Amino acid sequence: MNKQDDTTLLKPRGYRRILSAGFHLYTGYFRRFFKASWQMALLYAIACGLSGTLTTIKLPEITLAIMNQMAAYQGIMVETLKEYAFTILEIVGLLLLALATLALASAPIIAKLKEHKETNIISSPPHWLSASPAMMGRSLKALFLTILVMVIPLVLFLVVIYATETVSPHFVANHWITCIASFIICTILAILLLQPLFYVQMKYLMESTASYWKTLAKGYAAGMHHWGTLFLVFFVSGMFVTLVGLVIMMPSYILNFANQEAQRGLLMGDPLGMPSHMPYLTFITYLACNFMQFYVNQIILVHSYYLYGSIETKEKEKNQLNEDRTIN
Asked: What is the pTM of this model?
């Protein structure tokens, strides 16, 4: 079997062949993926560096203030949140910026995957901005609308908790183990039920004719029909990305721990014990680690691409078989 046949998108594949085809395509064309996306990936890494550095420096202070008020007033007081409102908004804003730049940085790679779908080749990008503004906008919409759908179960859980606390005050405090167990169970169920969104998201990115909500309405059932393949592909791909990521991100984890311990000690009255240039070193470390981790994470995107192709092919074959049976 030649290289093009091996990486053709629209073929029925089991989870092993999806994983194999994804690794084969990504490693074989990595230089072209990198050339098409490195500037946007650098922008994403800068956003991660800013948000990570600010969170590392400020989060211990906010956490300690909340814990002190919990000890003094037996509950989280609004004053703490008001006092650190601007810092919290900065952190949230930078995290949203990191998500937005993640979508923008992924857009050139998605554009190359779409080119592969249409031509079965991936050409070398002629210039640095290889993704069209339309693809960037579609990538942004796909990411944030998928996150919105994923957040819905969390919002429903919080509404139930709020309603329960309103009807029966101190219910959460008196039954906190039950509440935590319920939250864990609901989270696991939500993750399992939301797995088809990976297929829906890629279908939306590869097919530019339908809106996200129409794609969700039509594609979710097909995704659920192939839930087992979805689970196996993303479990193996996710484990690979996690294990490699632990190695790549280790310097940032070490610096994060050292910074947080130093900040906690400073808040408790101890000397800082860290050099004045540590925030700059933290930022550079986060930037470098997240830049490398971005390209490790993209293997999940390529596996989603082949998963989409396999499901599309199987669904078309199933529909054709049903039509033939109807005719006969």
From this structure: 0.83
